[in-house]
Fold this protein.
Amino acid sequence: MPILQLYRMYPSKAAVLCGFFRRIDETVLAIPLDSAPDERPRDRVFDLLMRRFDALTPHRAAIERLSRDLPADPLAALAAGAGLLRSMRWMLEAAGIPGEGLAGIVAVKLTAAAYMATMRTYLKLLRCTGKP
């Protein structure tokens, strides 16, 4: 993509990060969640987060680079954090768990924390298996 076109679509690093998160969200949410009526909501969240990791796998190099670079770039880290919370809210909503109100805010933050802990393990696993 020519640099001018990229600039017009994403005028900042934060915009690039938000666009990337949105693209991953759209990939995850494009397929309706196939769950049994008696399935627990946390199991549905688990399924969606696993879909998310599947969607991220082709972008492994970018994810690894972000995990190294974000601690040194506070503005990009803030944008990534906000984008992550927004994404986790969508994952919860797709699983049938409200992401608004006090309980929703707590659920979003707990889901984001669990996701980030799992992300570290996911990256280690990809490094060990050499998956592209």
